[in-house]
Amino acid sequence: MRSLRHYKHGIALIPECFRCVPDKENFGSLEMELAHFTRAVGHPARLAVLLAIARKGGEVDGETLEIPQLSNATVIQHLRELKRSGLVYGRIFGARARFGIDYEKLRAFHTVFQVFMRDVNHPPDAGRS
Question: How far is it, in rounded angstroms, from Cα 47 to Cα 29?
């Protein structure tokens, strides 16, 4: 049995079976947007960070975000990922830290997820043989 990666002359090679995975360009905007947002909130620590910001009124100004089960470095790491996704805006560390939830992006995520769930629950070809 071959491993996922095997090497030839120091270069990692991807087995042939993994080369048939479709490129991202082959997916529609719904799939791409949903993947973008779900990747951002797909970690429990990121959900905890979003909830902590929401509990502070949606914005944190000049203070660190304290989440008991997470170190400050971990909180900042997850804030960076949330900022990269667009769900959080602002300056996330330093003495002049000021960041918050981008509720417009959060509503966009909600809308995209609702469309996805509608399509999954009621596919357009439902009932056809």
Answer: 24
Q: How many domains does the structure of the chain reveal?
A: 1
Give domain status of residue 126, yes or no: no
Task: Assign 99 to helix, strand or coil.
Answer: strand
- Looking at 7-21, 72-86, 115-129, which range is the least confident one? 7-21
Q: Is residue 107 part of a domain?
A: yes
Burial 66-75 (b: 16+ CB within 10 A, else e): ebeebeeeeb
Q: Checking DSSP bridges between strand 6-8 and strand 11-13, what pairing results, if any?
A: antiparallel
φ and ψ of 18, to 5 deg = -90, -10
Q: Domain residues for 57?
A: 24-121
Q: Is the pLDDT of residue 17 over 60?
A: no
CATH number of the domain enclosing 115: 1.10.10.10
* Mean pLDDT across 66-88: 92
The answer to whether the beta carbons of residues 78 and 99 sit under 8 Å apart is: no
